[in-house]
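Researcher: Please predict.
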Amino acid sequence: MPEATPLFERIDRPRRLPDEVATALIAAIETGQLKPGDRLPTEADLSARFGVARTVVREAISLLRYDGLVDSRRGVGAFVTDPAQRSSFRISPACFEKRKRIVQLLQLRTGVQAEASALAAGMRSKADMRDIDRIFAELEAADRLGPEAALELRVDSELMLYRRIAEASGNGYYVEVTLMIESTIQNNLRSAFLKNAAACEFGASILGEHRAVVEALRARDAEAARQATRTRFDRAATRLAQRADLR
């Protein structure tokens, strides 16, 4: 008997509009359509050309400014910078504020997720553990590929891992708070969150932090799960706060 066609297909995460606009502008810079010293079209012009709101254009230009690709001059516009003067460590006040907000969310998540993990250690079912192991394996695979090949997959796998742990706790309030934090990251801070992950959330030591949580859940050790999760989010917040461009 032929295999039945699935009723629904997997939905890939759509790219955000500011990312799409930023990608188009970067392509214009890299191909020489926009040269060093050129002024970008106005927000109103870009909004009309791309068919998006001016707020979308504004955020896209901010992304380019964070990377040092353009320089904004108040009352004049945004200009393409000279490649020789670009630096990956430049940071705008807006980006600084976004990263501070991520630190605050990680600090909030520390207590919430630590208690959810402790509860999940005792409440989780075998099916829960299979899901948690599967998601952690996906996180490991993405981490091995590195940030250039699998940045979004790596970040989304981590968010999914701790959401699933919160679900395994059996306490819907932990799930609600976890989803609120994740929604704030995805809708308002995703670009900054991805940049931070690329800079300091890959590698064996980071995977070890997650692995300690998963192993404590497998052992049904509530206190170990609590401490491992607290350590994970405490260290993530500290790494971000101590990055050179946040000092």
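Model: The two ends are 64 Å apart (CA to CA).
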